[in-house]
Amino acid sequence: MASQLGVSVSTVSRSLNDHPSISAATKKRVWQLAKELHFQPNHLAAGLRKGRSNILGVIVPHIDGHFFALVVKGIEAVASKAGFNVMICQSNEDVTHERKNIETLLGAQVEGILVSLARNTRDFKHFDKVRKQDIPLVFFDRVLDGTDVNAVVIDDREGGYQCTRHLLAQGCRRIAHFGGPQHLNIYKHRRQGYVDALLEAGLPLDETLVHYCDMTQEDGALGMRRMLSLPQPPDAVFSASDFSVVGALQEIKRHGLQVPQDVALVGFSNETFTSLTEPMLTSVDQRCEQLGQSAMRLFLEMLEAGNSTFSPRRIVLQPDLLVRASSKRLE
């Protein structure tokens, strides 16, 4: 472009950046040719020259379903106002892919990483490189239990407690629980809330009524099939995921049983399909957008305070039980 106009490269650069030392006539010529050549300024390169990329990396287990999509929407809303662009990666629930996501984001020279762990992630070793480069790191929703990191989570224990207490209030006494991998905070705490409510009601924990799985629809159907084969089947199921509870719903119908009359159902996450099933599924609203916004604001606080001097914080949001037809046995 510079040779075509008969000016220096620096003159072109300054014209495109509206530098006051360049005349209006020269700027006009540069921009006119730029449009003809469909020129796109390299904002990343320009940012890196100034020591900033203005890119934030986000890693999610998956983008299907509405939960992570809405969390990302919340992140982007705050990021955009703060002048950041968001680069989204999916781990596809696989720690190996999650490691590759980290390398990709570090290669893009992101200014921070927000991450919700893959289902089979059991340690933080692959995040060491992020810490060594002094890049702010915020976890949201899924965190390894017992770790001291910056995180934004839902009070999953309270959510599990509300779900189970609601089923008890409907007259249910043999309440099964479908739980996910217990090394992840969300599933461990939802199970603990279930146990808390049972003990409060004077009911012992019956491990034959607990089904641990990966929380897929197929897992839910399998778990329900196993529960219905018991000498005393459950009269309710609290699932730590909406995906597994919809599988349970299908299996119950295949057995010619009714929901909630024979088996009441409660899920977790308030996925879009919960209001489309027959009957509609009771579930827990996790305040997805607020979760994403809070994670982004925590990152901005770390950036402003200086990541290396920022004391780890855990922000806990409150869940909201949405009661629908799948669990209403009493009016």
- Specify the structural class: alpha/beta
Strand order of the largest sheet: 2-1-3-4-5-11
Number of helices: 12
Instruction: Assign a percent range to the helix content.
Output: 40-55%
Mean pLDDT: 89
Query: Which ranges are low-confidence, i.e. pLDDT below 50, for 5 or more consecutive residues?
Result: 43-51
How would you spell out the order of helices and strands? HHHHEHEHEHEEHEHEHEHEEHEE
Strand residues, percent: 5-15%
Integer-rounded radius of gyration: 25 Å
Structure explained in plain terms:
By secondary structure, the protein is an alpha/beta fold. 42% of the residues lie in helices and 15% in strands. It is built from twelve helices and twelve strands. The strands form three sheets. The protein has a six-stranded parallel sheet. Strands 7-6-8-9 form a four-stranded parallel sheet, with helices on both faces. Strand 8 (236-239), helix 11 and strand 9 form a beta-alpha-beta unit. Helix 5 packs parallel to helix 12 (288-305) and helix 10 (217-228) packs across helix 11 (242-254). The radius of gyration is 25 Å and the shape is elongated. The model is unreliable at 43-51 (pLDDT under 50).
